[in-house]
Q: What sequence folds into this?
């Protein structure tokens, strides 16, 4: 039974570019949450998707957007990349209630903006 | 504002010694409380969680945590540390009125001396 799968594991982008990160939830989970973890910091909540809609959003600019597909997988898009967007991006899936108590985290995508 | 404080950035202990990692939270009501561990380049693994009831919570890998309402604390303990416990540890809360997301502390890095 696969857990949460994120791709790619690493990528390097140039300032101003756009990036798409992908997440496949754990089998049986239908809710996906995204977190940004800057170096030396704890993860910060970006947003959560359920039933293909953004259910809740953290304090991130509109450059950060997402999508959820009918198979519950999700994408995180970041436009106009800044150096400060360099971070580990974590995806967490959970069951119907979306509660953090049921989170399973992926191993993350390391994004470096140069 | 809701916040989680982990006052120790680094802690070094000898293998076999006991361990206590501190966590304090700031929130109007008792939130759900969590401890996660993160090994280098990896995602987050849940060690234990507290919702209600017995204030001493047992987790995986021999860890336990004690909730103290009067001190708004949720400290993590282990009686005998193993070299494999070296990692980053994060305390997190999920507010009861917004339990979709986790609010993390900035983490404590545990180093284990042979």
A:
């Amino acid at each position: 039974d696969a857990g949460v799968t994120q791709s790619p594991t690493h990528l390097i982008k140039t300032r101003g570019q756009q990036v798409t990160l992908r997440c496949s939830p754990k089998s049986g989970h239908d809710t996906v949450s995204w977190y940004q973890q800057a170096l030396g910091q704890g993860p910060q909540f970006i947003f959560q998707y359920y039933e293909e809609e953004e259910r809740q959003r953290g304090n991130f600019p509109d450059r950060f957007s997402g999508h959820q597909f009918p198979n519950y997988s999700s994408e995180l898009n970041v436009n106009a990349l800044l150096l400060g967007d360099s971070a580990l991006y974590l995806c967490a899936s959970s069951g119907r209630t979306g509660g953090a108590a049921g989170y399973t985290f992926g191993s993350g995508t390391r994004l470096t903006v140069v | 504002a809701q916040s989680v404080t982990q006052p120790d950035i680094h802690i070094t202990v000898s293998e076999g010694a006991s361990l206590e990692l501190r966590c304090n939270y700031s929130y109007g009501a008792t939130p759900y409380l969590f401890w996660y561990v993160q090994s280098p380049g990896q995602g987050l693994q849940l060690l234990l969680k507290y919702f209600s009831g017995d204030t001493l919570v047992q987790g995986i890998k021999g860890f336990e945590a004690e909730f103290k309402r009067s001190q708004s604390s949720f400290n993590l303990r282990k009686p005998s540390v193993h070299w494999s416990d070296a990692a980053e540890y994060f305390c997190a809360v999920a507010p009861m009125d917004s339990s979709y997301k986790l609010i993390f502390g900035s983490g404590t890095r545990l180093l284990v001396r042979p």
User: Anything to note?
Assistant: The CA atoms of residues 41 and 87 of chain A lie 10 Å apart. Chain A has no helices and eleven strands. The radius of gyration of chain A is 13 Å. Chain A touches chain B at residues 4, 33, 35, 40-45, 48, 55-56, 58, 90, 92, 98-101, 103, 105-108, 110 (CB under 8 Å).
